[in-house]
Amino acid sequence: MYGQKLSVLATLVATVRAQQACSLTAETHPSMNWQQCTTAGCDTVKGGITVDANWRWTHEVSSSTNCYTGNTWSSTCTNGTTCAEKCCVDGADYSGTYGATTTDDSLSLSFVTKGAYSTNVGSRMYMMADENKYQMFQLLGKEFTFDVDVSNLGCGLNGALYFVSMDEDGGMSKYPGNKAGAKYGTGYCDSQCPRDIKFIGGVANSDEWTPSSTDANAGIGGMGSCCSEMDIWEANKMATAYTPHPCNTIGQKTCQGDACGGTYSGQRYGDNCDPDGCDFNSYRMGDTEFFGAGKKIDSTKKVTVVTQFIKGSDGKLADIKRFYVQDGVTFENSESKISGVSGNSINEEFCSAQKKAFGDKDSFTSSGGLAQMGAALEQGMVLVMSLWDDNYASMLWLDSTYPVDSTAAGSARGECSTSSGKPSDIRASDANSKVIFSNIKFGDIGTTFTAPSGSTSPSTDNSGSSSSAASSSYPAAATAPSSAPSSSKVAAAAVTPEAVTPAAPVNQKASTPAGSASTPASNPASGSASDAIPRYGKCGGGDYSGSSNCVQGTTCKVMNPYYSQCI
């Protein structure tokens, strides 16, 4: 018995005076592959995932005694520095505790998982480049594609895939007090400047911690963690939105109290980030038949989601375009049907017009707008995949009417009842819900999905016929993006870890397409010409002086004053 105690203590010991990692449970990252694409084809990149530190068991370094139970810190945590010295986060049982499983290129996240010692709600995962670093994606001028199945997600749930400007190493080099790093999912941040994160900058967020009155596993501390955020996909089977959220400081920045702004503070608008963003939700933009069960994009089936980050002639982000592929057919994003707002993509013109039409505060522009978002995309961002519910607004900002008593333009966001989505309800009724992300591809514009033979509608290239199936070995990173600061977005309990990662629960999200996607430029659609531009390639706009000859079956369309595209 004595020997066993010594063994346990030896296992637990970690360097003092730091946010630490322990190993009562071995940390083994589940593998998840993705593809890097160029005009020459797609190569397989061997990656992995790690769960956010907020969900991990937090206990004393010298024992298995909890430092955090439910939504309360233990007496060990007399202040943030002492707490970080005496407490650690531990390894994860991904399937048994968090309901997260991977197979080759897919990740399945379960909503409620009942383990041997805990009940876990939701989760947040990060893509890893190797055992100790997050995979950094430089998205400006690139295309990002993935498959997703939200058929099991009802009102009030959000299966989200997005990017944030976390540090590549989870903040270890920036904050010497952080000894756990990316391996253990540290360093989260987003545009809500979340204050429910347990450790920020290598210090416990225990000072001024107030347990939540509505969430038994979460609370709010005195510190928050801000950074730029690009929401590629926030969705359930009732509604979906994609939203850029710029910050004046791109990378992770620690804030204090209500000055943080965002969902977690008394004042929504701080001095750094845009909590509302410029969102494109087809239902909110007036097309109520575009996305949903049995609709044009049928949410009862798996769908391929394509997002393009288009550069203007000045090299800055000019447009964020969206396509969907389902059953071998490619669909352009829906057009806005809101008076005074035109287009089907997110650009400065669209965002400005939408803010005015909906009467929303334009924190998007004051936080740097599309140009600042583009700077974050260029610097490099971390891929996040999560499943969560919303203790703040029951996800009504995504899938219902919000504010609930409003009849104003922009308040209708989906068909869910204004009484739906309460976490206490859906954790009981929808406990078996899950989301599946798969087939991630990243690369040059027009390289991550192609037209099926004999069709004029491009679809995802799943055959691998155009890719060189070369695999780089995990932990090697395949993109060569630069590092961007990082931080974490949800709160979880030590015994019943739980994630609540609310995006802006207000009716102030906006999305604005610039220019018209329906005006064709002159184009000889000869696919045999040697200068034929591939599908989704640039064929005009700005100071472009090249060919406008699109590959057979496509036409050069003006997307905005800076960019025309073969489609």
CA-based gyration radius: 23 Å
As for the number of domains, it is 2
CATH domain topology of the largest domain: 1,4-Beta-D-Glucan Cellobiohydrolase I, Chain A
Mean pLDDT, all residues: 84
| Class derived from helix and strand content | mainly beta
Provide the CATH architecture of the largest domain. Answer: Distorted Sandwich
> How helix-rich are the residues, as a percent range?
10-25%
Low-pLDDT runs: 1-17, 451-473, 475-529
Number of strands: 36
Main pleated-sheet profile: 17 strands, mixed
| CATH-defined superfamily of the largest domain | Glycoside hydrolase, family 7, domain
- Per DSSP, what share of the residues sits in E-state strands of 2 or more residues? 25-35%
Distance between the termini: 71 Å
Shape by Cα distribution: globular
Question: Any idea of the CATH class of the largest domain?
Answer: Mainly Beta
Question: DSSP helix count?
Answer: 8
Q: What do you see in this structure?
A:
This protein is mainly β and 567 residues long. The protein has two domains: 2-517, Glycoside hydrolase, family 7, domain (1,4-Beta-D-Glucan Cellobiohydrolase I, Chain A, Distorted Sandwich), CATH 2.70.100; 518-567, no CATH class. 11% of the residues lie in helices and 29% in strands. The chain has eight helices and 36 strands. The chain has a 17-stranded mixed beta sheet that branches. The N and C termini lie far apart (71 Å). The relative contact order is 0.20.
Give a summary of the structure in a few sentences.
The chain is mainly beta. 11% of the residues lie in helices and 29% in strands.
